[in-house]
Design goal:
The chain is an alpha/beta fold and about 250 residues long. The protein has a single domain, classed as P-loop containing nucleotide triphosphate hydrolases (Rossmann fold). The protein is built from eight helices and ten strands. It has a six-stranded mixed β-sheet with strand order 6-7-8-3-9-10, with helices on both faces. It has a four-stranded antiparallel β-sheet with strand order 2-1-4-5, with helices on one face. Helix 5 runs parallel beside helix 6. The relative contact order is 0.17. The C terminus is likely disordered.
Length: about 250
């Protein structure tokens, strides 16, 4: 079966710095993948490179079987790949509804429109006429995710889901994400909160210094093992889907 997304030997640089180094991974349709790692591990650069917002220096990116490595970002959106960037990046002087509608103008055919996005994020209904600059962090994150949904993506990349949000706002955002997951959305989530990440994802990938140091089904790995890989305490190998990692002694 062809993966919806397949990355082979990907390299992405910031000047002389290799932010992503010879990285390979895949995402299946309907899968939720949690991408974790310490600050500077290369997670955001990886997502931006997948979305076309940052150039690849080497390797390939295939989406639905087609090589999109050199395809510009706007065409990737048209193919069904959407990014929710770190920091939300909303149009501050536009209202919630206007931010959503901007993304919907060139949307692919699909289930997502203003009505269905507001159904998925009911907390936005009473503030739909409010300007984005006057929203709370949690509200802005909900608008940012909803804006990406307005393009009717087949794969949604969400960078730093809960960064800078209050616990109440994180609960609100994850409640809406759970509805998307239940509906069968394909997601890649960059998340600093390991507990949250492991609770919603089918599979976890941990990055360290631009490389994948662990990838495993969440059911086959412990939080302690992910934490070790996160901080580089052990070079834990990838885990086959049918065999859990051994417990430490």
């Amino acid at each position: 079966m062809t993966s919806l997304l397949r990355v082979d030997g990907l390299v992405a640089d910031h000047g002389l710095l290799h932010a992503v180094r010879d990285l390979s991974l895949s995402v299946e349709e309907g899968e939720v993948l949690a991408l974790v790692g310490a600050n500077g591990a290369g997670k955001s650069t990886l997502l931006r490179t997948l979305a076309g917002a940052h150039p690849a220096s080497g390797g390939t990116i295939h989406f639905d079987g087609a090589d999109i490595t050199g395809v510009p970002a706007h065409r990737r959106v048209g193919l069904g790949l959407a990014l929710v960037p770190e920091g939300r990046k909303l149009f501050p002087e536009m209202t919630v509804e206007e931010n959503l509608m901007v993304a919907g103008r060139r949307a692919r055919p699909g289930q997502w429109n203003l009505s269905t996005v507001l159904d998925a994020f009911p907390m936005l209904v009473p503030i739909r006429r409010k300007r984005a600059e006057n929203l709370s962090g949690g509200q802005q994150q909900a608008v940012s995710i909803g804006r990406a949904l307005m393009t009717n993506p087949r794969l949604l990349l969400i960078d730093e889901v809960s960064l800078g949000l209050s616990p109440v706002a994180v609960d609100m955002v994850y409640e809406s994400l759970s509805a998307l997951i239940t509906a069968g959305a394909t997601l890649v989530l960059v998340e600093q909160d390991l507990r949250r990440a492991l609770s919603v994802a089918d599979r976890v990938v941990c990055m360290l210094e631009g490389r994948v140091v662990l990838q495993s089904p969440t059911s086959a790995v412990t939080r302690d093992q992910v934490t070790q890989a996160y901080f580089g305490l052990s070079r834990t190998p990838s885990v086959p889907a049918d065999r859990p990692l051994p417990e430490r002694t």
